[in-house]
Amino acid sequence: MLRSKPCAAKMSLKTVREQRQTDGPYFLPTKVTGTNRGVKRFADFVILSPGNLVISTRGFPITRFSDLPNTEIAEFQMLPTWLTVLNAEVIACTRCPRLVAYRERIAREKRRAYRDCEYWGKPVPGFGDPEATVLIVGLAPGAHGSNRTGRPFTGDASGNFMYPVLYETGFANQPTATARGDGLVLSDLYITAAARCAPPDNKPMPQELANCAPYLDRELEGLKNLRVIVALGKIGFDTYLGNMIRRGLIARRVPYVFAHGASYKMADGKTLLASYHPSNQNTQTGKLTRAMFVEIFRRARALAA
Fold first, then answer.
1. β-strand pairing of 134-138 with 189-193
2. How far apart are CA 114 and CA 75, in angstroms?
3. What is the pLDDT of residues 166-197, one digit of tens each?
4. Does residue 154 contact residue 146 with C-beta atoms inside 8 Å?
5. Are residues 141 and 232 in the same domain?
6. Does 298 reside within a domain?
7. Is 213 a residue whose pLDDT tops 60?
8. Smallest Cα–Cα separation from 29: which of 114, 106, 123?
9. Which of 14, 16, 23, 76 has the fewest beta carbons under 10 Å from its own?
10. CATH code, domain with 291
11. Residue 7 domain-assigned?
């Protein structure tokens, strides 16, 4: 049974019945609840296909639409099969014992302001438009941000700084990001991270970054329309360069120096654009201003055109 509120808005509701005849599979980045003969059942992530409902977390034995006849689904979003499968693998990942222990402890203990919320407490998958020409590579989920909400840059100060900028530059349909199901939609932009789990002190270890690297490799391979990579911070910058090294497109990172606003035309034709990360440390000290961040995404838009 649910012990606390999911702290997610219920938007754009569609019933399971309405989706029975549609093509699939589908990935639902939301909470699904329903009642069948008086028994409440729920799942964090599901894959839908015609005539089948597959629960990928929580372990409830629900395998048919008829098991949840009254279910309503928030934030219905169709993703390509490869991304559906990849995101499900990310969510289930337990490769880094230190990060598993930390993210789950934070989800249990909670911050006082969110004590009535149900924390996500799992790896956070990417988010956005699968047809995007621009990719953001961030650092890692925040302990009480994405690790709580389950979506990149959602529910923390970094997101509060970034999403208004994405809205102003035409990449987001609204300037706020508070929870899964809040109606946020990204256009021509996809967001991912160097590490998928919240790390202690926001500092993932080298082996933890290496464990996450194959997920980024598969995203970069699958997002066929990418033209611009916006790296937020030095770790995001180096993470993308690591992908280029693994693909044999560059020999080493040394020629590529991180600096805010620096851009490099890469061997695969994409442009790597560097930015300071919108962390509190950078935004509250004036190292990264809103005007500086707006300019980054205006340049990204122009370079992707």
1. parallel
2. 22
3. 999 999 999 999 998 888 999 999 999 999 99
4. yes
5. yes
6. yes
7. yes
8. 123
9. 23
10. 3.40.470.10
11. no
